[in-house]
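Feature request, filed as a ticket because there's no other form

It would be nice if the structure record came with a short human-readable summary line next to the tokens. Right now we just get the raw output. Example of a typical job, pasted below so the devs can see what we mean:
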Amino acid sequence: MKKPNYISPGDFSTTFFDGVLRSKEFDDIYFSPINGEEESNYVFLEGNNLKERLLINNNFTIGELGFGTGLNFLLTWKLFNDLKLNDSYLDYISIEGYPLPINQINKIHERHPKLIKLWIELKKEMPPLWSGTHRIILNKGRVRLTLIYSDALEALKLSNFTVNAWFLDGFNPNKNKDIWSMDVMWEVYRLTKPSGTFATFSSAGFVRKNLEKAGFNVKKIKGFNFKKEMSIGKKKGKIQQNKIFSKYVIVGGGIAGASIAQALRQRGQSPLVIEKNVKLAQGASGNIAAVQYPRLATVNTPAGRLSLSCYRFSRNLAKKLGVAINDKSIIFSTPEREAIKHNKLLSQGWPKDLMRKISKEDKLAIANFDFNLNGIVHDYGGTIEPVKFVNNLMPDDIEIIFGKEIYSFTQSTEGWTITLSDKTKIKTEVLILTCSDGLKKIKQTSVFNLQYTQGQVTHLDKNKFKNIPSTNFSFSGYLTPPINGIVTVGATFEKNSNERSYISEEASNININNIPNEIFRNIFPRNVNLNKLDGRVSMRVSTFDRMPMMGQIDDNLFILSALGARGMIMAPLLGQELSSIILGLPIALDDEILKKCDPIRVERSFLG
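Raw output as currently delivered:
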């Protein structure tokens, strides 16, 4: 049996015979093949009095230990839909150390006609079997499933969400004691809201004792069918209501602003967006093409976990919104430090569909010939159209003010008063900053220790090529397949430079000269003219530690910025997370990641 770790989730042997799925390691079935739906409904949904509680809670959160085949989630989702709770929202967070392959789960749900439609919808959204946190958006945002593929105790210790109800659905406690341990039960209790509940099929003495010791009031009730007993329990305390706001203003119409606007709209809010340009995506989000791939770390770091979670979410979203080109991302092992890192990654056993060694076929896709450069391939990655991404992400039914900048904003007892460049004043309860270079012009954010780096991409007509790459590839820069006949080569990192709007021939030369010579000679004809090239220039903003700024700056003042060159990867999931912070909803990302994204750390670094 392979246990879960940072690099890959756990794996164990299973058997499937006559509708019964069984774990060999734990010698236990996933659920009864005869009445599995009825058993799960009785133990978990009725055990937590779910139907009545969903009717009186607008935002309900369920935590689960053991996703298994997803049966409990599908039953909960069906109940939520059947109740027709049009103004309510469901969060379901499930921790699974040993996720099952999709084809194996499919064999189970093909036998459950009541849930097959929901399973077909969920199957389209199920993530690859990669370790970490996977956020899935269903019912247009009214249902959010968060799958955490990790060891249960490790995941719980890093978590900060709180739930209304727990489904404790590990294997038989006598065969899988780790998930029922005292340490796990303490974490379960910590992450339970006052008046929150749990239900489990188990009535084992040590399980009840651990739950009681953690702080729950525990009692035994009649088990399902022939099972004599099961356990339910409750945490003391009164239900606490989150403060509800009605006015939200987002400053910035790039990928960060669109991501937060969509996340808030999915939860029934109608933010106002202020964009200084006359269209969306006119800053760093306005390039013709961008490349999506993760920055994997050879050791378990918050930055590596964040990159992987954001990559999966954003790449899936780009495909759903129709802005992803049908290619993959190839990273060459150059310079030498990259080669060392790639060799280490390739030796660590990462899932092949996440990362693999470059092949001859990959090289042919780049330049129609084989060459000696080594590298790694991200088959899930690829090229996207950033402007379309932003526009398709931004909700159609929210108000946007174009062509006006923020002059200043001041705090009051009611929230914030914003003064625009034309002296117009707007009042809001919540203010969210997603601008980039504009941060240095705002009093409240000018104190942050930020690095402003200008970047230029170079545009090449596809007719200049003798072999047009059919996939993107990265070196010290990157090159993409053509979009609307234009190949993008990027991008410069011009530190401490004066902001400019014109295209620099020197910057274009840097981009072109970065293309590896062996490839250059085979994609361009010998007499190609690469003078006076077109392109685009914009300003990036990043922090001293290259982690984004995401969180609260002041009372009801929030920020998502400093995404550097990774906005198209980072922003969509971070937008979801920031909206959760604002609305008091469960946060998927772990505590270590949130601390590394806390904007106050950047101010402290400036103040010393």
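Something like this underneath would help us a lot:
The longest helix spans residues 302-320.
The two ends are 48 Å apart (CA to CA).
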